[in-house]
Amino acid sequence: MKKLTVLLFSLFLLLSGCAASAPASEGKLSVVTTIYPLADWAEEVIGDEDIEVTCLLQKGVDLHNYQPSAADILKITNADLFLYVGGVSDEWVEDVLVQSVKDDIRVLNLFSISEDRIREEEIVEGMEAEAEHEEETEYDEHLWLSLRNASYYTGRISEELSALDPDHAAVYAKNAETYQAKLLELDEAFVTLTDNAAQKVLLFGDRFPFRYLCEDYGLSYYAAFPGCSAETEASFETVLFLSDKVRELALPAVLTIDGSDQKIARTIVDTAGTGAKILTLNSLQNAGKEDGSYLQIMQKNYEVLQEALSR
After folding, report:
1. Nearest C-alpha neighbor of 65 from the set 286, 256, 223
2. Rg of the chain in Å (alpha carbons)
3. Residue 160 CB-density burial (10 A; 0-12 exposed, 13-18 middle, 19+ buried)
4. How far apart are CA 235 and CA 220, in angstroms?
5. I need a surface site. Which of 86, 153, 209, 271 has the fewest CB within 10 A?
6. With respect to CATH, is domain 198-308 assigned 3.40.50.1980?
């Protein structure tokens, strides 16, 4: 479906010749991103400079289900800088970039610059894998859920903006440095929290997009599904396994992610019968400005972990 949208848009361009008719606001450089964390990082680096930032995925739109509209594709093809994740959910992007109006468009693909930061999606004990993925390697797309990755990407965004607008390179570098210091401060708070936690296991009655966060802080986990799974119903065996783990480990909480109907988590809690709470961690994969900044959302995740790692 995503490729069909791109092909139809390409035909539209050929027939109408209007690709260059929708530039960014007069005189402004244009930065376009797929997901909210990238837009928020870009705005932090840009600061008070007059650059237009557009995030394609609005609040409530999940990266894994996103279908670019013709208007979205036009925004990308007219951008000066395009930022995207680059995982399997973004396979449509390469076809769009071929249509770019600007020969000198700058593109930052997180996967292409992440090298040893990328991890394969894990299938841990008790987790249900989708049948079509059992025989192939799939990489975890949720790179933005590591504060350390966020700091690295902020630096790379600063470099791209500096190349695009060298007159303000010092401003972008300074803004990035200031923001990276805030990211480091929160990262150190997470380290202190997890180093002193009563227990270091998280259990999700849901998908699990937090591989990078858990790896940063030495946390183990159990979950119903991997992070990119489209499954919504857990088997009896999965529910029973996770319920047994709640009892065995005396876990104070079963976690869900933003947007979850919490049905699986409630079934796990009811089956375990221990009075465990249901808590929600925000994956930022369908977040928007209404939810706060990237740092504010990650601070809220820190507060949730305080409770989830207690006794």
Report:
1. 286
2. 21
3. buried
4. 22
5. 271
6. yes
Cβ neighbours of residue 110 closer than 8 Å, sequence gap 6 or more: 38, 83, 84, 85, 86, 143, 144, 153
Q: Are 255 and 228 a contacting pair, CB within 8 Å?
A: no
**Which contacts of 149-153 are long-range, i.e. CB under 8 A and separated by 24 or more positions?**
149/114, 149/117, 149/212, 150/37, 150/41, 150/183, 150/294, 151/180, 151/183, 151/184, 151/187, 152/117, 153/38, 153/41, 153/110, 153/113
Give the C-alpha separation, 290 to 209, whole Å.
21
Reported as a single tens digit per residue, the pLDDT across 92-141 is: 998 898 877 777 899 999 999 998 899 988 889 888 876 555 556 789 99
- Residue of 140, 145, 113 lying closest to 282 (CA atoms): 145
Rounded to two decimals, the pTM is: 0.90
Cα–Cα distance measured from residue 179 to residue 181, given in angstroms and rounded to the nearest whole number: 5
Span 26-73, pLDDT tens digits: 668 999 999 999 999 999 999 999 999 999 998 888 788 888 999 999
φ/ψ (deg, to 5) at 131: -55, -40
DSSP H or E segment with residue 267: helix 263-272
What distance in Å separates the CA atoms of residue 257 and residue 238, rounded to the nearest whole number?
Answer: 18
The closest of 43, 87, 33 to 294, measured between CA atoms, is: 43
**Continuous H helices in 93-166:** 93-97, 110-114, 147-164
Which among 245, 174, 176 has a CA at the least distance from the CA of 204? 245
